[in-house]
């Protein structure tokens, strides 16, 4: 228990401050259920916390986190599809109006993939298969940035991962249907860990542009 004492202390502060502040909201959410407008698909990296970045209240965001904030292409085969199931729950069940793919700088999963650590011969039961979602994207990035330094390649891959995930989202028939009907909008975001800056994907030119910190 000593090893997680700081977490227990944090829980007590949560009860005293955060929960106390939103107590009525929590009680309402418990009785009426959740009705979030926005789903965020984020990396499981401990430095990236969507609720903190967007400063949201309880019940505002439906968040799914995985390695490298990836969305797999739609497929009905296989047995377990955690991210795909969450997307179906969000779109078909909760009727969210927005989905944000939230990438970030210095992503360890992206770096390891670029370094070849997740190749089939490298071993491992799960992560190599998962990162293979980006295999074609990686080849394209390496071609377009031939001779670039490692930091440039990683930055390009981090951005490309968001583009790939947005493209894969549209392979889900129910996502494409809701987007076409203008009931659902898709967004790309990029969080810079060191500076706390958030960039938004401009779909007109495919570039990521800073969101002003103040209105």
Q: Would you report the number of β strands?
A: 6
The outline comes out as globular
Give the biggest beta sheet.
Answer: 6 strands, mixed
- Strand order across the biggest sheet? 2-1-3-4-5-6
Radius of gyration: 19 Å
Alpha-carbon distance between the termini?
Answer: 45 Å
Structural class: alpha/beta
Question: Would you write up a description of this structure?
Answer:
The mean pLDDT is 95. The longest helix has 20 residues, at 150-169. This protein has helices at 5-21, 23-32, 50-53, 82-93, 108-114, 127-131, 135-144, 150-169, 173-180, and strands spanning 38-43, 61-66, 98-104, 185-192, 197-202, 207-210. It is 43% helix and 17% strand. By secondary structure, it is of the alpha/beta class.
List keywords for this structure.
single chain; about 220 residues; alpha/beta; 6-stranded mixed β-sheet; about 45% helix
Summary of the model, kept short:
It is built from 9 helices and 6 strands; from the N terminus they run ααβαβαβαααααβββ. The chain has helices at 5-21, 23-32, 50-53, 82-93, 108-114, 127-131, 135-144, 150-169, 173-180, and strands at residues 38-43, 61-66, 98-104, 185-192, 197-202, 207-210.
Question: Strands, helices and their partners?
Answer:
Layout: H1 5-21, H2 23-32, E1 38-43, H3 50-53, E2 61-66, H4 82-93, E3 98-104, H5 108-114, H6 127-131, H7 135-144, H8 150-169, H9 173-180, E4 185-192, E5 197-202, E6 207-210
Parallel strand pairs: 1-2, 1-3, 3-4
Antiparallel strand pairs: 4-5, 5-6
């Amino acid at each position: 228990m000593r090893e997680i004492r700081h977490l227990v202390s944090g829980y007590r502060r949560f009860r005293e401050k955060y929960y106390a502040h939103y107590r009525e909201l929590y009680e309402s959410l418990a009785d009426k259920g959740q009705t979030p407008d926005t789903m965020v698909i984020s990396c499981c990296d401990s430095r990236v916390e969507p609720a903190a970045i967007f400063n949201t209240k309880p019940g505002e965001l439906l968040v799914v986190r995985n390695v490298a904030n990836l969305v797999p292409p739609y497929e009905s085969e296989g047995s377990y599809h955690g991210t795909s199931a969450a997307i179906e729950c969000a779109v078909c069940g909760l009727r969210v109006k927005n989905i944000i793919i939230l990438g970030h700088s210095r992503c360890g999963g992206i770096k390891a993939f670029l370094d070849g650590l997740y190749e089939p011969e490298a071993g491992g039961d799960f992560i190599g298969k998962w990162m293979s979602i980006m295999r074609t994207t990686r080849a394209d990035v390496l071609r377009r940035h031939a001779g670039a330094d490692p930091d440039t390649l990683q930055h390009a891959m981090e951005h490309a991962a968001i583009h790939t995930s947005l493209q894969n989202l549209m392979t889900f028939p129910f996502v494409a249907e809701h987007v076409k009907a203008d009931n659902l909008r898709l967004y790309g975001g990029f969080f810079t860990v060191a500076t706390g800056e958030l960039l938004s994907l401009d779909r007109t030119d495919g570039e990521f542009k800073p969101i002003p910190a103040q209105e």
